[in-house]
Amino acid sequence: MATYSDAVKQRAARTLISKGPLCNVRPFEAQRAGFKPGKALKSLPAKLKDTHVYYLDGEGRVILAESYGVSAAVINRSFYFHERGELKSVHFDASGSLRNVMLSFLDGARIAQDINFGKFGEASYDYLYEDDLLQSIKVYQKEHGQENHTEYQILFGYVDGQMDNIFHVFPNGYLEQRYP
How far apart are CA 179 and CA 128, in angstroms? Predict the structure, then answer.
């Protein structure tokens, strides 16, 4: 992994460092996980926990994201492959074990659908836009060994064109606020 990781870093045109997640490769990816956007840094801090390093190609697209745990030895890595009409990503945990792979189908520059297969299960995400704003994502997921998929919707709220909140809405009516 180190050899490949080093090769990707050499291809990078630019590097961004942040405390907390700063770059969303997929729409509102960090916020959907409940995180507020991170803060850009000029260099790696002494305390690495929750430090993110993004390696970008010449077009400004993330090709590698590293997320530090409690020390320099604990790094989760995500590799991104940008192709015409598709975005592929492969995610490894700090031990170097494969965590999940994701294939995104693009409609122009927007993601229309994600298909994810991971260590614990699989999922698909269907994106719905109104004009240029992402309104919802329909999620179908199941753990390995489960027969049926469960589903829920991710809803995005906006104020003056800026994303303001994210909710998960489940078929039984349960509503979970994910952001802020």
Answer: 19
**Beta partners for residue 102, in sequence order:** 89, 116
DSSP E strand boundaries for 57-149: 62-68, 75-83, 86-92, 98-107, 110-118, 121-130, 133-143
For residue 1, the model assigns a pLDDT of 85
Neighbours of 104 (CB within 10 A): 22
Task: Tell me the average confidence (pLDDT) per consecutive run of 10 residues in the chain, 180 residues long.
Answer: 94 98 97 96 96 98 97 96 98 97 97 98 98 97 96 98 98 97
Cut 0.90: pTM above it: yes
Q: How many CA atoms lie within 13 A of 109 on its CB side?
A: 5
Amino acid at 176: E
Distance, CA of 72 to CA of 35 (rounded, Å): 22
Cβ atoms of residues 70 and 84 within 8 Å: no
